[in-house]
Amino acid sequence: MRPEIQFYEELAINTHPALQTQLYDGWVLRFSNGYTNRANSVSPLYPSNLPGEEKVAHCEQIYAAQELPAVFKLTDASPAGLETYFKETRLPSDIANARVHLRRTVCAKKPKQRENNQWL
């Protein structure tokens, strides 16, 4: 887990809040009646205990109940193997049926530190 990416993802979540947020075993589930993918997505940000496959299925059921596609926002802070799981087992058939969307975000560079806080 890369703490700096987790930190920036938390900032993004709080900067663009959803109407409803649930925490499910370390994954942040966000709902906003279908407006924007960011506000209607799953962010696997924190350590968890349940198997990834079980969690993915649970998230799909929750979003389907709200008539929304399950959008999983993956970063370098996401659990190891989750992206491979989607690519190898879930996405080929699910993408064709528009039930699951995968967003991959990469934080390529750490922002520069300011020398002083005068701009604040």
Q: How is this structure best described in words?
A:
With 120 residues, the protein is α+β, with helices and mostly antiparallel strands. It has one domain. 35% of the residues lie in helices and 19% in strands. Helix 3 links the parallel strand 4 and strand 5. The longest helix has 15 residues. The relative contact order is 0.16. About 4% of the residues have low confidence.
Beta-strand fraction estimate: 15-25%
> How many β strands by DSSP?
5
Oligomer: single chain
The number of helical elements comes to 3
What proportion of the residues is helical, as a percent range? Answer: 25-40%
- Rough shape? globular
**pLDDT < 50 runs, ≥5 residues:** 95-99
Q: What is the terminal-to-terminal distance?
A: 30 Å
Q: Order of strands across the widest beta sheet?
A: 1-2-3
Largest sheet: 3 strands, antiparallel
Order of helices and strands: HEEEHEHE
Describe the structure in brief:
With 120 residues, the chain is α+β, with helices and mostly antiparallel strands.
Properties at a glance:
120 residues, 19% strand, alpha+beta, two-stranded parallel sheet, three-stranded antiparallel sheet, globular
List the helices and strands and how they pair.
Blueprint: H1 3-15, E1 20-24, E2 27-31, E3 42-44, H2 52-65, E4 70-74, H3 82-96, E5 100-104
Parallel strand pairs: 4-5
Antiparallel strand pairs: 1-2, 2-3
